[in-house]
Specification:
alpha/beta; nicotinate phosphoribosyltransferase; TIM Barrel; 2 domains; six-stranded antiparallel beta sheet; six-stranded parallel beta sheet; globular
């Protein structure tokens, strides 16, 4: 990714710091987000691998420097600085595939003030897009209730990168596969697909089209049965072909892509079973999302697999993830000093200081809360741990000593070079599946889920209150 992939004001601010001779001044920035998409209770973190690739390759080419020179805004001394630029800072992050919650510092950057500013746009873009798609996919997969979901969105995504990395994010979110061949190749999946209506229309009749497709792919034969009439033509012709190839078929079945899918799937299941094909799969598509899938389940639809395209790859009900990147501490003669941004909106006031956070698990192994602390704080697990709601501090919860475990979520992923071990996308997806399983079922409801609490340590709460009062 090109170093010019940044907002222009990052470069103008960098030159300002350069002119002030502040290029060695250390800062701490946090990336977090303020609310889960679609009123959910959690999100799925994705995009870390691409962000590390960006850091590793971050440099300005001679053509980049020439382009910036032509803008008439930058001095030759600053352009010379950029010509040898390399990101040398330290980055902490939660592991990719983690479930995440509003307010927690999911990425922490400790770097000089110029480096820290330059990477803002790319960090928010890369992590924001993939986390949005992974989170949307997780909701769709939850609604599908153990039936596989396949990402079918290539043609609906907003451009190549959105389709390609959106497919990756969908796999992390729980999709069983993708129709995108390049994404499947690069991310270690087997591409999945059937045939289109045009295959049927390109033959003399529907029966011939089904017969020829089955002859070509008997080991994996899913026939699209709604080109003309699903129940009067498509399904009877599919059954006729299945009988002709009986004993030669591997995975086989039909795909429904229009009409009343709940009703049609139940009729199709009955007719397939009566014809002696209880193993025939019913795959459905047609502008699905988590709400439609939930309703299909409520109506008793007979479905074995969902193909979800437009509303998954575009996260149709939420156009953005909403992650932000804020300074939390800056260098002073006395060392790193916490800083705070105030706002008329309480939720926009950041948590100051150099921080980390812990996930608290109960004795059954379920995640109960996150606790944000100052970096230097230590928690004694042999003692009771009392948490309070930072917005309503009179609301408290106590975990008894030795009945809870702590997990420090932020790990060092970069320190002038990659430290984070590269993982295959399928490994990240498996990790994300375990992460989702660590949440109580009540938190995974599509409607009115239980809200997971993110808490501040008493020391951090006191520091934040003091800075607000001082400002």
């Amino acid at each position: 990714m090109n170093a010019l992939f940044t907002d222009f004001y990052e470069l103008t601010m960098m030159q300002g710091f350069f002119n002030q001779n502040r290029q060695n001044e250390i800062t701490v920035f946090d990336m977090f987000y303020r609310e889960n998409p679609d009123k959910g209770s959690f999100s799925v973190y994705a995009g870390l691998e691409q962000f590390i690739d960006y850091l590793e390759n971050l440099s300005f080419s001679s053509s980049d420097i020439n382009y910036l020179r032509q803008q008439g805004k930058f001095s030759e001394s600053f352009l010379t600085y950029l010509s040898t630029f390399k990101f040398t800072g330290t980055v902490f992050s939660v592991p990719e595939g983690s479930v995440i919650f509003p307010g927690t510092p999911i990425v922490k950057v400790i770097a000089n003030i110029m480096e820290a500013h330059l990477i803002e746009g790319a960090l928010l873009n890369i992590i924001g897009h993939q986390s949005l798609i992974a989170t949307k996919t997780a909701k769709i997969v939850a609604a599908a209730d153990d039936r596989p979901v396949v990402e079918f969105g290539l043609r609906r995504a907003q451009g190549f990168t959105a389709a390609h990395l959106g497919a990756r994010a969908a796999i992390i979110g729980g999709a069983a596969g993708t129709s995108n061949v390049l994404a499947a190749y690069e991310f270690g999946m087997k591409p999945i697909g059937t045939h289109s209506h045009s295959w049927v229309m390109a033959h003399t009749d529907e029966l011939t089209a089904f017969r020829e497709y089955t002859r070509a792919y008997p080991e994996n034969c899913i026939l699209l049965v709604d080109t003309y009439s699903t129940l009067k033509s498509g399904l009877p012709n599919a059954i006729k072909v299945f009988n002709e190839f009986k004993g030669q078929l591997g995975t086989f079945g039909i795909r429904l892509d229009s009409g009343d899918i709940a009703y049609t799937s139940k009729v199709a299941r009955k007719l397939l079973d009566e014809a002696g094909f209880p193993d025939a799969k019913i795959v459905v598509s047609n502008d699905l999302d988590e709400n439609i899938i939930r309703d299909l389940s409520i109506q008793g639809a007979c479905i074995d697999m969902y193909g979800v395209g437009t509303k998954l790859i575009t996260a149709s009900t939420r156009a953005y993830f909403g992650n932000v990147y804020k300074m939390a501490a800056k260098q002073t003669p006395q060392g790193l000093a916490p800083v705070i941004k105030l706002s008329d909106s309480t939720e926009k006031i950041n948590n100051p200081g150099n921080k980390t956070f812990y996930r608290i698990y109960d004795k059954l192994g379920f995640a109960n809360a996150d606790l944000i602390t100052l970096e230097e704080e230590a928690i004694d697990q042999s003692r009771d741990l009392t948490l309070f709601d930072p917005k309503e501090p009179w609301k408290k919860k106590t975990f008894k000593a030795n009945e809870y475990t702590l997990r420090q979520m932020l790990i060092k992923i970069y320190e002038g070079r990659r430290l984070y071990q590269k993982r295959e996308t399928t490994e990240i997806a498996e990790y994300a599946k375990k992460e989702k399983a660590s949440l109580w079922p009540e938190m995974q409801r599509l409607l009115n889920p239980h809200i997971y609490h993110v808490n501040l340590s008493p020391n951090l709460y006191e520091l934040k209150s003091k800075l607000i009062s001082n400002e």
